Amino acid sequence: MKEINIKNVAITFVVALIIWFIPVPERVTQDAWHLFAIFAATILGIILKAAPMGTMCMMAIGFTALTQVVAPGDAGKSITKALSGFGDKVIWLIGISFFIARGFIKTGLGNRIAFLFIRVFGKSSLGLAYGLGLADVCLAPAIPSNTARGGGIIYPIMKSMAISFDSVPEKPETHRKLGSFLTLNSYYMNLIASSMFLTGTASNPMCQKFAANLGIDITWMSWAAAGFVPGLVAFFVVPLVLYKLYPPELKKTGDAPKMAAQKLKEMGPISKNEWLMLLAFFILLGLWIFGGALSIDATTTAFIGLTLLLLTSVLTWEDVKSEKGAWDTIVWFAVLVMMASSLNELGFIGWFSNLIKVQIGGLSWQVAFPVIIVVYFFSHYIFASATAHVAAMYAALLGVGVSLGIPPMLLAMMLGFMGSIYGVLTHYGHGPAPVFFGSGYVDLKVWWLRGLEIGIVLLIIYMAVGGLWMKVLGYY
């Protein structure tokens, strides 16, 4: 029972029952309302950490099938519909990308790339920050778990660099020397990298799926094209802003390139498996960019990449079976997508969007657009999961905005970017946050204050630069 918080489970059930028995609003079917009760309770349970996300989602499948809200009167069809999310290609895109990410970690290629950038850029603390950030950006297209990227590759290297310059977690008086600056910057850069690619973090393909439900087609390339310029601007600006707001005491880190070179020497020459991993990475990147012209979609590309890694023994089937993060993501991702898609099919999302539209219906789309984005961004304070936030609000706000005349692609992409960068706000706002915060280099007050400041900077960059760039691209 260690994973289960009985009190929070009880709260979740009570909320579900209250919503279930509330009189069904006009223009909403009973099945849609009852599915919403299950969906809302699932999201609440995830936020409260009543049980692991997978457990909450398994319960949701059970209640969805038992109550037959997605297929009234037909038990067989109801369970089939409840399990339909597992057949969605978006689910498998993200799951297989996790398997591919394991190749970067297993072969050591991810570490090698990070050390190469540190060797080139690491002569100053600011250069070190850019080097670690650049490594994250280069790994982001093929490693969709920003927790694996940040926590498994970047964080250990960042921490070892800080300690080597006598900035030690156990000695608070040394934190500002280098460790606290690198901790915050590495986390911010991780979120910027996550926003730039469809495969940058797990919630991005969920946005793609919800947008598709409303007839908005987002491809891997269209996301990358839209995210590249604002992401690049943010990549250069954020370390400079943080350097002014929260400067490290140590400005020069001349020994960092030597340390990186020593690590690379210890790793030895690039192994055969690293070359094969690199080849698979470029094949993946090429097909994600140009595969549309060959009628090869992103999920098919992911299958091709995984097959290459398995056939060349870079990965074994045991590696695939033991990748718990991937299977966990496939489970909860499939269930949340199933419920959100079913709510849309049953008309609930359209009804809810119209309800909000009535409240802000007098606004022009130019005013409604920033209002929706800002509300979505700062509402992340109440979410401990980026995925739960996307599942709860993305589709509804997208529907509202489109109904008010906001260009669909502009809003879909901007809400998608927010799904990464709103993680700067809190120490629980995104997957890698607990890893970086857990280092002990940054106290809670500083984390929240710097997060708010950087969050405002990112909002301005993405809405101004990103909005103009999408206009240039012809997205609206």
From TrEMBL:
One Pfam short name: Na_sulph_symp
* GO MF term list: transmembrane transporter activity
Question: Membrane spanning segments where?
Answer: 6-24, 36-66, 181-200, 220-243, 275-294, 300-317, 329-351, 363-383, 395-428, 448-470
- The residue stretches assigned to a coiled coil in this entry are none
Recorded hits in InterPro entries, A to Z, give: CitT-rel, SLC13A/DASS
Q: Which GO terms describe its cellular component?
A: membrane
Keyword annotations for this protein, in alphabetical order, are: Membrane, Transmembrane, Transmembrane helix
Lipid biosynthesis among the record's keywords?
Answer: no
Lineage runs:
Bacteria, Pseudomonadati, Bacteroidota, Flavobacteriia, Flavobacteriales
Q: Which family does it belong to?
A: Belongs to the SLC13A/DASS transporter (TC 2.A.47) family. DIT1 subfamily.
* Name the record gives this protein: Anion permease
Annotated compartments: Membrane
Q: Tell me how this protein sits in the membrane.
A: Multi-pass membrane protein
